[in-house]
UniProtKB/TrEMBL annotation:
Any GO BP: endothelial cell migration
Source organism of the structure: Anser brachyrhynchus (Pink-footed goose)
Main localisation: membrane
This protein's name: Cadherin-13
Signal peptide: 1-22
Record gene name: CDH13
Topology versus the membrane: Lipid-anchor; GPI-anchor
GO MF term set: adiponectin binding; beta-catenin binding; cadherin binding; calcium ion binding; identical protein binding; low-density lipoprotein particle binding
Stretches assigned to the Cadherin domain: 172-245, 246-363, 364-477, 478-585, 584-695
Biological role: Cadherins are calcium-dependent cell adhesion proteins. They preferentially interact with themselves in a homophilic manner in connecting cells; cadherins may thus contribute to the sorting of heterogeneous cell types. May act as a negative regulator of neural cell growth.
Cross-referenced InterPro entries: Cadherin, Cadherin-like_dom, Cadherin-like_sf, Cadherin_CS, Cadherin_pro_dom
UniProt entry keywords in alphabetical sequence: Calcium, Cell adhesion, Cell membrane, Cleavage on pair of basic residues, Cytoplasm, Glycoprotein, GPI-anchor, Lipoprotein, Membrane, Metal-binding, Repeat, Signal
Annotated SMART domains: CA, Cadherin_pro
Entry annotated with the keyword Calcium: yes
One Pfam family in the UniProt entry: Cadherin_pro
């Protein structure tokens, strides 16, 4: 209570002084006192004044309005801060934002505990263990030594003394350990006679905070006569390290319209000094805010925790009305508990005001016009919209939908990802003769849903009027493709088909003429007037121009427009097979050794270009053999193959075996051909078919042939 009375008296005194000097001071717009300290009561009582705030815009305070960061408090018109209900816990601080027609300002009210003080420095010397004289070994007394860091020259500098209770006559002190004869060497040394300990250079507590040395006493020969005894040297911390922010960059996000007191981010600094002293006791504050609109105090930082929170009302966190959605705060961290003697480190916190979908997209006009030629597809018009939300988010990106006028699904609309425009396209060609005008109703929405208190309005729909332009369309064949079946080899001049093409431009009353466009084999012609197609050559199913028994030709239908338009029709003629190809025999050459034991010479096969049943089974026969005796025979293996067998070994020579092969067509066709048989000499797995005896063989065959004229043989054996 005494503390609160002191605060109240201080405030009243400041007000009296302000009033006394008012005539002599130039008016400064804003709160006349910006920071207040009040003691945390057991409870803030409803409607009881907490303190009085004085705000003056120097122009009459017209339309003055106060906003308090805690909704449980309000500021009356006379500047009294009162609680709206009984409040037992109000936090560590309250912020009051005042705004009039001509000025605005922020006041900070800090709430402190009854026993809370600004704090003295903590004990600067902190030595673990007992700082009194420890139990010593023998007669050496080595009390701990405390040395401040960062001492200035001259060096060496005496820092302590080791004594021996039994006297030092004829004895020497010897010092050892880290900092003496171990790295870092040469920091400490001892006077071997007096026991004075000195330091040779400045110490850095952040490098080494404690040294554990040993002291011995030796005789003149170097023999240890006492010790070793431990000597502790502690480095006293000095405030020689300013706080540092090591975790940057610091970027925080807060949604626009967030409630007052929303935590944005936490800033944490590090101080290399002794954490048990005020040298590393940090307090945070906001040094600078950029920009300063709409308020120079948009954020507050908890002095102890480093939490940055919003302190303005949700209506002031409106991303679309801000100068920029990015704020940069220069944050200071000061050691020594924030007192002026402390060292300060700074860092920049970037706070981004994130967008929420609180603005629906709106078409830039209620009606759009488009013109498209019939028969054409593609984009016909771009629909433009405006949206005040962030272009990098789904709250800005538009989604378009055709909600009426598209029963045939002839139109589609997609979003241009760069401009957010709606690209309306024709995906099915339009027909002027069916409809010359189309009216579409289109709505636009965002990818993200709107916030609950916002809805899509009439400006989120638009009408598109589409005019279809008439063009001279080419005639259309019916049907297309056209199919017909004909036998191959029909007479030249036969009628194949009469085509039918119509002009879609029914209002133009045009005539149509026909012509051949592509006739690969040159078999067809068309009457230019009535479209009758006839043959000009024999249709051959086995022609290379026929694929899978189908011959394809293209025809044109040309209207009388200016310029004329053309339509293309496709004709597929399926050709039925007739037996017009004799079978062929393979192979036509065979070889055999003159002393062969296996007299099966060769297996013959037959093929036919025609189709079944004009092909196999084939009939294989030998023509009448010449000579006094039979030399070979032919035997059927299956429907397509037969085997030629010698009835005896023959002399080395070339023989021609007459063979006929007949297909199964009606009527059947026969191919009379010869199989050339070479009888060769074979020695040591080598076959010699040279014609050295060709003349002899030929003469022999001639004589045999003459003899056969007189001696006709019997039936051919098969």
């Amino acid at each position: 209570m005494q503390h609160k009375t002191q605060l109240t008296l201080s405030f009243l005194l400041s007000q009296v002084l302000l009033l006394a000097c008012a005539e002599d001071l130039e008016c400064i717009p804003g709160f006349q006192q910006k920071v207040f300290y009040i003691e945390q009561p057991f409870e803030f009582t409803e409607d009881q004044p907490v303190l009085n705030l004085v705000f003056d815009d120097c122009k009459g305070n017209n339309k003055l309005n106060f906003e308090v960061s805690n909704p449980d408090f309000k500021v009356e018109r006379d500047g009294s801060l009162v609680a709206l209900k009984n409040v037992s816990e109000a936090g560590r601080a309250l912020f009051v934002h005042a705004r009039s027609e001509h000025a605005e300002d922020m006041a900070e009210i800090l709430i402190v505990g009854a026993n809370e003080k600004r704090g003295a420095l903590k004990e600067i010397f902190k030595i673990e263990g007992n700082l009194g004289i420890p139990r010593q070994k023998r007669a050496i007394l080595a009390t701990p030594i405390l040395i401040p860091e960062n001492q200035r020259p001259p060096f060496p500098r005496s820092v302590g003394k080791v004594i021996r209770s039994e006297g030092t006559e004829g004895a020497k002190f010897r010092l050892s350990g880290k900092g003496v004869d171990q790295d870092p060497k040469g920091i400490f040394r001892i006077n071997e006679i007096s026991g004075d300990v000195s330091v040779t250079r400045a110490l850095d507590r952040e490098a080494i905070a404690n040294y554990e040395l040993e002291v011995e006493v030796t005789d003149l020969s170097g023999k240890v006569i006492d010790g070793p005894v431990r000597l502790d040297i502690s480095v006293i911390d000095q405030n020689d390290n300013k706080p540092m922010f090591k975790e940057g960059p610091y970027v925080g996000h807060v949604m626009e319209g967030s409630p007052t007191g929303t935590t944005v981010m936490r800033m944490t600094a590090f101080d290399a000094d002794d954490s048990s002293t005020d040298n590393a006791l940090l307090r945070y504050n906001i040094i600078k805010q950029t920009p300063i609109k709409p308020s120079p105090n948009m954020f507050y930082i908890d002095p102890e925790k480093g939490d940055i929170v919003t302190v303005v009302s949700p209506s002031m966190l409106d991303r679309e009305t801000m100068e920029t959605p990015k704020y940069e705060l220069v944050i200071g961290a000061k050691d020594m508990g924030g007192f002026d003697v402390g060292l300060t480190g700074t860092a920049t916190a970037t706070i981004l005001i994130d967008d929420k979908n609180d603005h629906p997209p709106e078409f830039t006009k209620k009606e759009f016009q488009a013109t498209v030629k019939e028969g054409v597809t593609g984009v016909i018009v771009n629909l433009t919209v405006g949206d005040r939300d962030d272009p990098a988010t789904g709250a800005w990106r538009a989604v378009y939908t055709i909600i009426n006028g598209n029963p045939g699904q002839s139109f589609e609309i997609h979003t241009n990802p760069e401009t957010n425009e709606g690209m309306l396209s024709v995906v099915k060609p339009l027909d002027y003769e069916i409809s010359a005008f189309h009216t579409l109703l289109i709505k636009v929405e965002n990818e993200d849903p709107l916030v609950p208190d916002i809805a899509y309005g009439p400006s989120s729909t638009a009408t598109v009027q589409i005019t279809v332009k008439d063009v001279n369309e080419g005639p259309v064949f019916h049907p297309n493709p056209m199919t017909v079946t004909k036998q191959e080899n029909i007479p030249i001049g036969s009628i194949v088909l009469t085509v039918n093409a119509t002009d879609p431009d029914t209002l133009q009353h045009q005539t149509i003429r026909y012509s051949v466009y592509k006739d690969p084999a040159g078999w067809l012609e068309i009457n230019p007037t009535n479209g009758t197609i006839g043959t000009t050559a024999i249709l051959d199913r086995e022609s290379p121009y026929v694929q899978d028994n189908i011959y394809t030709a293209l025809f044109l239908a040309i209207d009388s427009g200016n310029p004329p338009a053309t339509g293309t029709g496709t004709l597929h003629i399926t050709l039925e097979d007739v037996n017009d190809n004799v079978p062929s025999l393979y192979p036509t050459l065979a070889k055999v050794c003159d002393d062969a034991k296996d007299l099966r010479v060769v297996v013959l096969g037959a093929s036919d270009k025609d189709l079944h049943p004009n092909t196999d089974p084939f009939k294989f026969e030998l023509s009448k053999q010449s000579g006094p005796e039979k030399l070979w025979k032919i035997t059927k293996i299956n429907n397509t193959h037969a085997q030629v067998v010698l009835l005896q070994n023959l002399k080395k020579a070339n023989y021609n075996i007459p063979i006929s092969v007949t297909d199964s067509g009606k009527p059947p066709l026969t191919n009379n051909t010869e199989l050339k048989l070479q009888v060769c000499s074979c020695k040591k797995s080598r076959m010699d078919c040279s014609a050295t005896d060709a003349l002899h063989i030929s003469m022999t065959l001639i004589l045999l042939s003459l003899f056969s004229l007189f001696c006709a043989d019997g039936d051919t054996e098969t």
